[in-house]
TrEMBL record, chain A:
GO terms for biological process: DNA replication initiation. Transmembrane segments: none annotated. GO terms for molecular function: DNA replication origin binding. The lineage of its organism: Eukaryota, Fungi, Dikarya, Ascomycota, Pezizomycotina. Residues 224-283 form the ORC5 lid domain. Keywords: ATP-binding, DNA replication, Nucleotide-binding, Nucleus. The keyword Nucleotide-binding applies. This is Orc1-like AAA ATPase domain-containing protein. Belongs to the ORC5 family.
TrEMBL record, chain B:
CDD domains: Orc3. GO terms for cellular component: DNA replication preinitiation complex; nuclear origin of replication recognition complex; nuclear pre-replicative complex. The keyword DNA-binding applies. It is found in: Nucleus. It comes from the Eukaryota. Pfam families: ORC3_N (PF07034), WHD_ORC (PF18137). This is Origin recognition complex subunit 3. GO terms for molecular function: DNA replication origin binding. Its main location: nucleus.
Amino acid sequence: MGIPLLPDELMLMLTEQWPCRETQITRLASLLSPTRNNPSILTIYGPRATGKSDIVRSYLKATTLRHAIVRCRECVTGRHLLERTVAAVHQSLAEEEDAQEYNGRCESISALVVHLQRLLEGKKKFVLVFDRVDKQRDAPPTLLPALARLGEFIPNLTTVLIVQHPPPRFLHQAGVPHIHFTSYTRPQSLAILSRNPADIFVDAPPAELEYDDETHQEDKTWLWPRFCAAVWDSLGQNVARDFVSFRDVCNKLWRPFVAPIVKGDFGTRDFSRLVVNQRKLFQDESVLLDSIIAPVTTSADTPTSKPAIQHELPYHAKWLLIAAYLASFNPPRFDALYFMKSTERKRRKKGGGTARSGGRPSQKRTVPRHLLAPSQFTLDRVLAILHAILPHDLRTTIDIYTQIATLAGLKLLIRSGGIGSADPLEPGSKWKVGTSVRWEYVQSLARSLKFDIADYVVE
Amino acid sequence: MEYEKCYVYEPEDHRPAKRRKVEPQGLHGSWNVRREAYETAWGTQEAQFNEKLGDLNANAIYKLTTFLDEATRDSNPSGIPAAILSTGPEGSSSTGVIDQLSREQNAQKRRVFIRISASTGTNLKALLKAIIQKATSRQDGIDDEDEEVTTQKRGVKLLNYDLQLLADYVSERQLEQVAIAVGDTEAFDSDLLSDLIESLGYWHDRIHIVLLLSVATSASSLQQRLSRAAVTCTKGQLFDVAPSDAQIEGVVETVITDSSITWPGADLMNLVLERQSDYIQSIDGLPLSLKYAHMSHYYANALTVFLIPDIKFADIPSDHFDALRNVDSFRQHCRHLLDNGQGSQVRDLLESNSVLFTLARHKIRELQTRLDGMMPVINLLYQIQGTLQGYSTLPTRYLSKLYKLAMSGRLTSDASLIRSMLLAIRKSQPEIIGFVFLVCSTGFIRDPYMSRFVTVRRDINRLIGQAAEENQELHSADHVQNSTLRTTIVAQKVELSKQKATLSKRDEAYTKLLRQFSDLLEEYFTASLIDPKAFPFHELVVYDLRSPYRETFTPRPRQAIERALAAPHDYLDCDCCAPDGADGNGEATLSASQPATAVLYQLYLESGSLINVSDLRQAFLAVLGDEGRSEDENIALFQRALAELKCLGFVKGTRKRVGHVAKVAWRGL
């Protein structure tokens, strides 16, 4: 090897900062070397949380290559991306040279090429990084191939595309150098995580125990890696493989795990006994689920799970929803049988067992109706059913229509399909119950109204 | 008709030739005075209402403000802090909270408060644009420019949906927080909401964003709709901001107790509260209903001039007195006087306006004072009930229910409700009676009873004190535990005898005092609880007309149209299509003189779900008969009528069968 790719101290600093990524950094150094020729396009790929963006960023910063990084995920449209690219390149150039005002609209990829040509004319090497370009919203189909060929028009420009899982030949170009950021293996994950062990004691233990910070430091560097390994073996290797979620799970479980130590039931080095004692933690998979409600971490013992706050619908809205459910899941041809007052006797007979309801299962296998998707109904039908099932008379006023509008606003009733369904005045428009109105939900509604819904559902 | 769904009515500009009556006449003459009276009467109530409603939200707002402040302090959170407001199905109550919050927060310099809703935009670009515009135009109104590009001070041009604009604005003004309130999360497209939260999440390290998401159903249903990335970047906390039943009761309470001129009657209250529970959950409708009741009382009833506290005899036109003599309760009063042989008084009342004026003023003021005195008693009843509730099996009634009972005159001291309550007091243990005293002593009992109450309380308290010193318990002889039934057989007959447990002298004294106390309460209730209907001129003080409320707040548009078409005579009132029965209750029948659309609609009602148009036309022509019109004219009438039915949404073209139309609307739904 002739000239070293990078000065040694720089290499050392990077590998120190990003452990277990030596291969990738070396490759990056060889392809994006400040001193040698660079390829015009470079693709960096790898799964989530493998340090792609951060390593590229800190590498470029360390090597003082002139560069601009565009975060594609923040760009709302394709044009947004192009505008930001121009702005970022201009800004990065303006930092060292005279800040000239640069105005220019950039509405298409061709315009981008022109702008970049003008900006980078006669300049030295420049690296343009598109971070997560595969996540770009509303990207024109030619965006990726066009970006890959930027270097053909602009000398000294290197385009770096950071993507997660590139499909084969996604750039429509052969011979594009790729750097693969592999996901961290078990020892790698553990090694990285062990660099910052979490505290066992949040509050300083009482003074009489003569437990100083130094011992605490020793204990936690001893206990934390073992704990992390246990988490990896139980949960991490199957479902939390990527580093971020693995770290989150470890952090979530750590406080409950060391709670007996803090209480004083176990010593800090009783790892195996502690694992046996706390094995429930490693079996409970609910920690893996994300929730929009942050768990309440009070200083008290355990986070109390409050019953979910759910407000009841008004009285008539409940009936309306039940009627809508029946209209959605009962075929219209049975309406006369189930909802006409005069046929009440027939309905009652159902439990008694007729010739057809006898022991033998039917030859045809049918999916239970309540498991199928809801079918459409007209508003008049649901109002008629509402009148039929209500235990008292209903004076239809504008309030009922308000309820329908409210339920539609809550997406519990949905206007569905058909021509002109967007027009609220369309006569005979079709409706459906929303996806959240399932059998169980309606059953609980009916129970709260003391209404025996099972009598009215066609089996 | 086919292509126009609505029309713009453009009236011609010149006035009709006939002179309009601008000056009010007759009973209407006092209208201006009554309007002023209404404004003063309702104004005070409205102020109290608003205050109470403000208090309702105060708790929620305090919690939310603390949340926002905490989020400011957390300098590097792992996700967007989000307050998830559980509002109940009627979202409007939460907008009250958000309104109030935004008013308070926008006064602060360090925080921007933005509100968006589903109607703000249908795509991410529009939403972000709206957010940025709302945030940045707060202090210096940027013109609404359609230009997509906004220039910045640094010379870089940015698109107007670029959050960089917001980030620059925030760093320029050194704002600590950008709070974004999302109105109706259910109405949002799930993907759009997820996208919005995600893209706000990317910027969270540069802009301190806090989300306030209103949820009408439940937080878990919101979570199901969001994408995983959106879920991971929100750090939510749940807040319940919907007013509870108890709070609604509190608002009702202020209204009831604080009015001193007119009171809503039992029937009206019943209607209003029933609608509240059956259809509505938000409380905003309640003040409106009562306001409307006041308005219709003062505006429509000329006799309300007598309610104005400082009205002079000379101010009232004489025809108002004639009207007052027609009031039912006045007639009853006269009948009562005649029965008592006070004929001359009746003559005076009928002949002299000034005598009538004096009587009316006197009686109205009397009823007002009695009602004013009754409200605290209802409240006391409610409070005592609440106190006893934990210790006995008394059924609880809401204050509004008690009010309704009292206004309808059914809450007398004989009512089972009060009976059982007094019984419970007589049986009660010393510690419970202490609570009851506490409730009673807070100024509910009026003066003649106050001094007696103080004596009884002092005596009982002394007894309790003595018993406590000697470590003994006091028992009431009326308590079931202290008496046993004994059966003895005397001459083959079973004799039941109640055997009192042996009670000490002090217990007996205690029992006696408790009886005194309950007698005192009973006396007090008897004296205070009145039946307003028994008073003359109660129609003026107690407003209890249901129909104006009903017609205004619960109209029936569909039924009105159906009735107009099925029985056009009801609206037209013409001689030609009067129903057969001379007294007007005969069946409405088809006749050629009715409007063509009405004829066709009645034929339509008789048909099935698919209507053969040719048959329909024949039936239509048969009804029209030969009224001297040519067939072409009849066909034209038919076509227009059918087009009108289609426009009203009764029929619709169908592809199921040729030459048919589909029936879309059924009558009576």
